[in-house]
Amino acid sequence: xxxxxxxxxxxxxxxxxxxxxxxxxxxxxxxxxxxIRVVECWADDVPTGEVTDFRKSVQATADxxxxxxxxxxxxxxxxxxxxxxxxxxxxxxxxMDPNKNPAPFDGKRxxxxxxxxxVEL
Length: 121
Description:
Layout: E1 3-12, H1 16-32, E2 37-42, H2 54-57, E3 64-73, H3 76-87, E4 111-115
Antiparallel strand pairs: 1-3, 1-4, 2-3
């Protein structure tokens, strides 16, 4: 069964194109390590909730947009192996080098997690 890594990020709205370029370059690493799909979504219809919502979850300011993204892996084993390779001391890929592909967002407010699908239609 597939495995999903999910992310919610606040990105400065003025840096949308910069984010797209950053994601295209960085996301290709996940594909090289076995991901079968990577999707990056820019907020379009994100309502304000009474208690919580996507914007509040990442403390998005008025000049930021929410990005919701996910990486689909064929299974958890492939994901764990790919992530392990990326976190290893000998991993050296310019696509993930923050000096060559800087993240145009505040990584401290990024929310992420791994998920096992329980319903697929």
